[in-house]
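Hi everyone, sorry if this is the wrong subforum. Our group has a chain we'd like a structural model of before ordering constructs, and none of us has done structure prediction before. Sequence below.
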Amino acid sequence: MNKKALSTPILFSLVLGNMIGTGIYLLPASLAQYGTISLAAWIYTSIGAVFLALTFAHLNKRFTKTGGPYAFCKAAYGPFIGFIVAYIYWASNMVSIAGIAVASIGYLGFLTPVLDANHIAYQPHLVLLIELAIVWTFAAINMIDIHAAGVTQLILTIIKVTPLILITVVGLGHVHLDNIFPLTASHGNAFQAISGAATLTFWAYIGLETATVPAENTEGAKSIYIATVFGTLVTGIIYILSSFVIMGMIPTQELVHSQFPFSQAGVMLFGTGAAVIIAICAFISGVGALNACTLIQGQIVFAAARDGLFPKIFSKLSKHDVPVAGQILSSVIITILLCLTISPKLMTQFNMIILLAGVLTLFTYLLCALAELKLIGFSHLIKKKMNFIPVLACAYSLWMILSFDLKTLLITFILIVCCMPLYFIFFRNKKVC
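Answer:
Right subforum, don't worry. Here is the predicted structure as tokens:
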């Protein structure tokens, strides 16, 4: 593979573009149920995300190898845990793609009632067909060439960030403090509200490790470090400021029922014409994140298959160095997931998907942070303050996991347990690289 296929700007756009997808455009509405205290959840989640980003950047310096979390955990724990991490990370990525597809179409509901889940003309089966078309279109792009997918990501990221910055800057002058207070809604005390909101805000940080996954197709560890750490920092600033502006402009009672809060803010600031442009940019933002996830899903399967932990067919590359078989299998599974979760209420389907993606990803992040602690060793842990970053990343990941509801945790546990027999049946006696 060409190690310089993805430059620092493209890697930065992959990290930024994977995180800034549909989450920020839809989450102010999902968070409104907790009240504006959910802004504290954004801050808390952002700090935790930075700890995780630093942990991934340090792990990548140790192992600049394609696979990201899978490669790190395999090096630290061996092939069995490596296989489990590859499995759940791959699953979380596919669930994320499904969630992004759902939310992307949600913003097009601003343009036509047949795509608006709150309108009587809403047609869920038409929405499903469009979601599937988007998934397979970007699968096709990623099967052509990894560099083409990277350049596409850079362009989409520039488009998606522009309306967020514009609304944030202009909207700061239209924030009403009456919309900010009281801070809590009807979800008990402040701690419970922040913890509950954080399970949703974490969705918007899934993908902070993106630059580490195609490591062998990059310019090296330094580029990955810059993209991972600074991409996460910039994303956090955009999230916090833009959410504050939206919640300050739109009353909580109205925001909680909104399918496209940023377009509503656009109407208030610039009129209907500008809001249409924002809705289109929100859709582009979603498909940009979907493109980044699609690039990653093929690399995960390829890395595990190359090491003998997934079927050999997935390690085969096309003449453009693309793992086509992995892309096709992943897209088929995503298609099934979208069909199984179809709902007459878009936000119901969206929340269901992002909670599952969130907890699957958190288990991956927790294992990676523990891997960094294992590789550092206790004797070296107390020598340098920076070595406590993975400790904080572990604490954050564990707290977040415990914040999820029992049903989501149970589904996640079942998915993890189901993958274990596959390892012992198919791969235990095979040679693992």
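For your construct planning: The chain has a mean pLDDT of 83. The first helix runs from residue 8 to 19.
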